[in-house]
Amino acid sequence: MMSESIKELILSLDSNAKFKDGKDNRLWVAIESDKLKIVLERLKDKGYNYISAISGLDQIQNGKILLLYHIMNDSPREYPYITIRIELPREDPKVSSIHDILPGALLHENEVFDMFGVNFIGHPNLGRLLLPENVRGDVHPLKKDFKDSVYEGMKK
Amino acid sequence: MTFNLYFGPFHPALKEPINFTFEVEGEQIVNVKPALGYNHRGLEKLLETKTWLQSGFVAEHICGICSGSHNGCCYQGVERVFGIEPPKRGLYIRTLVWELERIHSHLLWLGVMLHEAGFDTLFMYTWRDRELTLDLFEEMSGRRVVYSMNTVGGVRRDVTDSFLQKLKKYCDYLEERTKFYKKLVLEDSTILARFQNVGVLSKNDAISLSAVGPVARASGAKRDVRYEEPYAVYDESPYQIVLGEEGDALAKTIVRIDEMKVSLDILRWIADNIPSGDYRIKFSPMTKAPENEAISRIEAPRGELFYYFKSEGGTTPSRVKVRTPTFANVLPVVKMLEGQYIADIPVIVASIDPCIACCERITIIDKGKEGVKMITADQLRSYAKKWYEEKYKVERGRK
């Protein structure tokens, strides 16, 4: 019953959403990137208030960058864990920041920017987090076509 | 008028380095900015070049204290990619490693926490007890710190009956010690003065900032992977969630001491109920994985440890994402520090059990005088001690 309502809720917000039932009660959802904010907002009303991580995936063969938002619900449900997958173009990836919905996502967004160069619109302090501040230019080490240009990037 | 107080990032040998910039007004902290990355080694990129079997050996070097958790969590994820289920005895030994590690980590933390408050004798006491845990690890795996116990499909070494007998004796001894520590922390007036109502994190903040581990539980938030999603053999074990209420440094201490007791119960249960049979299944090093993705979460001593694996059908993963518990607790500690006194910084930062270190060098920049003053961690500690002595003298004088 409950699981249907979660799927229906997401379908009512994005009719093209694709679902995959994973092991361990995890629901994998693929949605459009512009629907991300509204879906997360509605899911938060349902109790999904914890974000484990945002993991980026570079799919160089399709020219896409995938972002996976792993969220969780504290109270017992049919689907306590949801992974929301969005696709961004590899050239100039942009998505709106979700820190106003889930404040815990702030540093994760910084990390994804650092490693994949995804631009989070509305992020208050989008900059390098793990790499040194003096790494300049388009240096994002977890992209598949990254070469050791980081040392050149560090030269002032 | 506010001053900037730079805190960290070194000493890297003791804990992971982090840098905080405190905006202070007098003795009070107005604003905090964390800066990470001083210990970034690019391990996620490195993991993409390692085979499935090698990945755990890299993963366990992410952290020196919870190496067994990283190692086990990594292989648990690899098993989910392949769809392998390890034999029961292997899972029991894995759980044994995780729980022993929790005790060792909490004892280590308790010592550091009391040391930050000026109790160096207690630091020696807890670290002496921790030594026994390391001896057990040495007997079990041959190593004291990075044990490499897990592998794909089980564990690498079996445990003997004589080891399990020793484990039981160890549990009995440590149970007495945890009682002693709890009594001491709750009764000593100086510890209470330093820990009570210091660095409070409210339950709402813990939930909204996605705090993990004992930090969240001390505030009353039910965040424990063993509770939410029992992995390995936790669903059968006598595990109980330990919750605090106040969310201050004292609650964080008590939650961790109580958790040690729960871990001891689980260890005793494992020693009594471990099944015989295989402890691993055969796994060839160059096996190709199916095209799959998997998430592995475990409760490391500091909180939820998160691994994400993406396989595109090769002998190596195409992406590994690691989210360590301290990373999730950086925002909560920033929240805890706001509005607190400079003298409480060591205790508050230590109270999240940071796998981060800061305290070896602090620069105080006085904007008004444009002078730079460096103080060491020891100086800050003695400063904190003096500051508290003065404070209590004044209060006693009023009475």
Put the structure in a nutshell:
Chain A is α/β, with parallel strands linked by helices and 156 residues long. Chain A has helices at residues 2-13, 36-45, 106-116, 150-154, and strands spanning 18-21, 26-30, 50-59, 64-72, 81-89, 94-96, 119-121. Chain B has 399 residues and is α+β, with helices and mostly antiparallel strands.
Characterise this structure.
- The complex is a heterodimer of chains A (156) and B (399).
- With 156 residues, chain A is α/β, with parallel strands linked by helices.
- Chain A contains four helices and seven strands.
- Chain A has a domain of 102 residues: NADH:ubiquinone oxidoreductase Nqo5 subunit (Beta Polymerase, domain 2).
- In chain A, strand 6, helix 3 and strand 7 form a beta-alpha-beta unit.
- The model of chain A has no long low-confidence stretch (mean pLDDT 84).
- Chain B is built from 14 helices and ten strands.
- Chain B has two domains: 98 residues, no CATH class; 284 residues, Cytochrome-c3 Hydrogenase, chain B (Orthogonal Bundle).
- In chain B, strands 3-2-1-9-10 form a five-stranded antiparallel sheet. In chain B, strands 6-7-8 form a three-stranded antiparallel sheet.
- The interface between A and B is medium-sized, with 37 and 31 residues.
Instruction: Supply Rg of chain A.
Output: 17 Å
Name of the CATH class of the largest domain in chain B: Mainly Alpha
Topology of chain A as a string of helices (H) and strands (E): HEEHEEEEHEH
Helix content of chain A: 10-25%
Multimerization status: heterodimer
Q: What is the general shape of chain B? A: globular
The amount of beta strand of chain B, in percent, is: 15-25%
Shape annotation of chain A: globular
CATH architecture of the domain at 2-103 in chain A: 2-Layer Sandwich
